[in-house]
């Protein structure tokens, strides 16, 4: 077991219409995520697709951004969140639903290589 004293994740889960999926994925991978990493907000990001059939249709993705500092996550809320959300709303409309969850890593577990 490895303990992480100050490692944080900022999880953003987004639901969108299947017709927007390709455009949204391209935007996230080519513009949005690189902007946050290059801007020094996060060290890395993991983009995942939620693998369940959505009762309301559409598709759901999760992006987990990692940071060594909680202040970076709090600062993102203060400085960038409104601008980033406005850009997403302008590009993809009000059908796009997102929620954000700041998380602190307590421990990670796994097999050690032999």
Quickly give the CATH architecture: 2-Layer Sandwich
- SSE arrangement, N to C: EEHEEHHEE
Q: What class do helices, strands and sheet pairing give? A: alpha+beta
Main sheet specs: 4 strands, antiparallel
**Ends apart, CA distance between termini:** 16 Å
- What is the mean pLDDT? 85
Highest-level CATH class: Alpha Beta
Helix content: 25-40%
User: What fraction of the residues are assigned to beta strands by DSSP?
Assistant: 25-35%
Structural features, described:
The protein is α+β, with helices and mostly antiparallel strands and 114 residues long. It has one domain: Alpha-Beta Plaits, CATH 3.30.70. The chain has three helices and six strands, in the order ββαββααββ. The chain has helices at residues 21-38, 70-79, 81-92; strands at residues 2-3, 8-16, 44-49, 59-67, 97-104, 107-108. The strands form two sheets. The protein has a four-stranded antiparallel beta sheet. The radius of gyration is 15 Å and the shape is globular. The two termini are 16 Å apart.
Sum this structure up briefly.
It contains three helices and six strands, in the order E-E-H-E-E-H-H-E-E. The chain is α+β, with helices and mostly antiparallel strands. The chain has a single domain, classed as Alpha-Beta Plaits.
